[in-house]
Write a structure and sequence with these properties.
6-stranded mixed β-sheet
């Protein structure tokens, strides 16, 4: 019977197993939402990389696992990007090659306690470095960060208020490393248990001492979700449906009404009739309406996605143009080189234009809005800046209608819980076709979710809070700590390599030879 070691001797089999191990974390995210498995889901990947026969093979295990992780996390893109989804997963998977190498470097064989203690800090730091690089908007953004899997867990949300989703990711990897050591190196239980205790202590400290949002009142906010409207003239028919649903809100004593992303498919400057109809709705309901315009602008060239606030007297002048566009979905990076993606998938035929800055809008009733559009809700820095600028409520306008029936709508909605907890500000996630959701300033859900089959308008009593969370005050400090750890590691490894070269015995001198070719003898 073939042993496991013999089976893994095949490079292709080993890579396939690493990819499968790397794909496991997706189970912790919606829709499976098995959040508890995040505390051990990296263990198979770690155990595989630590047994790699060479450092190069460990790096390949890291790359293969990263490929599996990225492909599983973004599998719902396959119908749109086709083969390019595999290309992107392969490119992003490279970010975990150093992580795989470090797993072997610190955990191979029977590591000493010092190496295990270092691994509990170095490996989470390397993971955060990979998440940091892939968070760059051109690489797809921070969708599926490991810490985001804990969006339903109250202690994890408290950690997010201290160090953002970064701190949650760091501590999750620490727990996985400690569990892997307990499984594979039983003689080293002390540092592994110490790592688990330290993680529990950090979570307890955040729960007890980190400041809680101070609720100052309630804002009545309505979300209008029209549902799927396809076919010819869908833009006008969707607007009609949104108008019908909004009119149902008359008499509800509202502070704000929110429509989803691309809820208006025409520039309101070219369609003043639509602007007048929205203003009439605002007068009838007594609340400003935040719509989202996806159209070619009449006052400047290009297509923009813009959050536009409309009041009872018409356009208020508050407008936010989306800044971070979805690669391939809204623009094609290096179009001259990668423009072929439009031929094999549903990549953007024309690049949309970017906004130049974030905006806090005045919706009346003392309510400051911080709008975000679509996958901008995945970026912690954007919601943090809005909180610093004085936003009372974060509003995400989204549309995942292309991905109905996949895990994407639920994953997207769950991100709002993290952004709310990080900033201490409630967040409204309003979509065209679901999932729409609202979260309070502590990240806990407020009211019902509006699923992908719903076509309705829902009113939420949203707690409004003041105060500043540690994350808003200090920013991405866990990332800075992680980079510092990796910098110290690089210096230490470099100094170690220099010492080894200096201590290595030099080459033996070749004996001198006489004219006749025989070795010279001393004294002659």
């Amino acid at each position: 019977m073939e042993t496991l070691e013999g089976w893994l001797a095949s490079p292709w089999r080993r890579s396939a197993l690493a990819a499968a191990a790397g794909a496991l974390p997706v189970l912790a995210f919606p829709a499976p939402a098995l959040w508890w498995c995040a505390y051990g889901v990296l263990v198979p990947w770690i155990l595989l990389a630590r047994t790699a026969p060479t450092a190069r093979r460990a790096a390949l295990d890291g790359w293969s696992g990263g490929f599996g992780f990225m492909l599983a996390m973004h599998h719902w893109l396959l119908p749109s990007l086709h083969v390019f989804t595999l290309v992107l997963a392969g490119l992003l998977g490279v970010l975990w090659a150093p992580w795989g190498w470090l797993v072997r470097r610190f955990l191979a064989g029977v590591p000493a306690r010092g190496r295990i203690a270092a691994a509990l800090v170095v490996l989470p730091s390397a993971w955060l470095a990979a998440e940091l690089v892939r968070s760059w908007q051109a690489l797809g953004g921070p969708w599926g960060m490991l810490g985001a899997s804990q969006w339903q867990v109250a202690p994890a949300l408290r950690l997010a208020s201290v160090g953002g989703v970064w701190l949650v990711s760091f501590l999750l990897v620490t727990v996985n490393v400690a569990v892997a050591v307990l499984v594979a190196v039983r003689a080293a239980r002390v540092p592994a248990v110490a790592g688990l205790v330290a993680t529990a202590a950090a979570t307890s400290a955040a729960w007890v001492w980190s400041p809680r949002p101070h609720e100052t009142g309630l804002a009545r906010i309505a979300v209008v979700q029209p549902g799927i409207v396809d076919g010819t003239d869908s833009g006008n028919r969707r607007f009609d449906r949104e108008e019908q649903l909004t009119r149902r809100l008359v008499g509800q004593d509202l502070d704000l009404i929110v429509w989803g992303e691309s809820s208006v498919g025409f520039d309101l400057g070219e369609r003043p009739d639509l602007a007048r109809r929205i203003a009439a709705l605002s007068r009838e309901t007594g609340a400003d309406i935040l719509v989202n315009v996806d159209a070619r602008r009449s006052d400047r060239p290009g297509i923009y996605k813009s959050s536009v606030l409309v009041g009872p007297d018409g356009l208020t002048g508050d407008r936010y143009d989306k800044m971070r566009l979805i690669p391939f979905g809204e623009y094609v990076p290096a179009r001259s080189l990668l423009g072929w993606a439009t031929a094999v998938g549903k990549a953007a035929g024309e690049d949309r234009r970017r906004g130049t800055g974030q905006v806090v809008m005045d919706a009346g009733h003392g309510l400051g809005l911080g709008p975000l559009v679509c996958f901008e809700t995945a970026f912690p820095d954007m919601s943090r800046r809005l909180a610093q600028a004085g936003a009372d409520v974060l509003v995400g306008q989204s549309s995942t209608s292309t991905f109905q029936g996949s895990w994407a709508p639920r994953q997207h909605a769950s991100l709002a819980a993290l952004r709310a907890a990080e900033t201490g500000r409630p967040m409204v996630h309003a979509t065209l076709t679901g999932v729409s959701a609202v979260f309070g300033p502590d990240g806990q859900r407020v009211g019902p979710w509006l699923g992908t089959r719903a076509s309705t308008a829902e009113v939420y009593d949203v707690p409004v809070a003041d105060g500043v969370t540690p994350y808003v005050r200090f920013g991405d400090w866990p990332v800075h700590v992680a980079l510092l750890v990796l910098a110290v590691l690089s210096l230490t490894e470099g100094a170690r390599a220099v010492r080894l070269r200096r201590s290595a015995p030099g080459p033996h001198p070749r004996p001198a030879r006489t004219v006749r070719g025989s070795p010279a003898r001393p004294g002659r």
